[in-house]
Amino acid sequence: AEEELRHAEAVAGRAQAEQAQMRHPLINAVPFPLVLTHGNRALEITPQARVQFGLGETELDDFSLTQLFVNPGEQVKLVDTLTRDGTVDDYEVLMRDVNDRQFWVTISVRPLKYDRRDCWLNAIYVVDGRKRMEQDLASAKEEAEGALADLKAAQESLIHGEKMASLGQLTAGIAHEIKNPLNFVNNFSSV
Questions:
Q1: What pLDDT is recorded for position 67?
Q2: pTM score over 0.85
Q3: Host H or E run for residue 88
Q4: For range 104-111, the mean pLDDT
Q5: Per-residue DSSP letters for 103-138?
Q6: Which of 119, 171, 182, 190 has its CA 20 to 30 A from that of 96?
Q7: Do 63 and 42 touch, CB atoms closer than 8 A?
Q8: Are strands 117-126 and 34-38 parallel, antiparallel or unpaired?
């Protein structure tokens, strides 16, 4: 019986090793950043995620996802959403690589059983270009709105100036019309 137990353990160990060998080519074939986590610990990272986060061949035992969040409070919000909803779709967050270069991503997370553990599959899409473009557009919009406000103020000032000029001309015309008969009367009264 003891020998059968050892044999069964050996077969199970070989089966797990074969599964692990099959997983690595699958993980390496994924063409975008994926991180498989259990708690805060990364279990698997695709090559694209290693490049994006500047991880190289970093051992996963020494790696924590918290290191990648610019604001660790965002990770807490993400976990809260996962706990409440069970999944996360397109959560925008500012992340960083190991060299502290910051970039915007959206993260979508799904629960997954992996090695008999409850894990999270994190699909990470870099949206840095789009996010920076949105920021540039917002800045340009603010500048355009400021320029429009300045133009409206200048327009109102010009209209006010034109009204005052017209009023001045009208006043001068009235004064001239009043002065002409008075001059006529003054000229004849001195004769």
A1: 85
A2: no
A3: strand 88-96
A4: 93
A5: EEEEEEEEEEEETTEEEEEEEEEE-HHHHHHHHHHH
A6: 119
A7: yes
A8: antiparallel
Per this entry, what is the length of the chain? 191
Please answer whether residues 106 and 91 qualify as being in contact, where contact means their C-beta atoms are separated by less than 8 angstroms.
yes
Residue among 106, 107, 116, 124 nearest 38 (CA): 116
Residue 125 pairs in a beta bridge with 106
Distance CA 70, CA 132 (A): 16
Q: How far is the C-alpha of 6 from the C-alpha of 171, rounded, in Å?
A: 115
CB 41 within 8 A of CB 60: yes
Q: How far apart are CA 41 and CA 158, in angstroms?
A: 66
Cα–Cα–Cα angle for 49, 59, 117, rounded to 5 degrees: 80
Closest to 74 measured CA to CA, from 118, 38, 105:
105
pLDDT-derived band at 133 (thresholds 50, 70, 90) equals: confident
For residue 63, give Cα distances in angstroms to 41, 55, 57, 177: 7, 9, 11, 93
C-alpha distances (whole Å) from 130 to each of 32, 92, 124, 137 are 17, 12, 15, 10
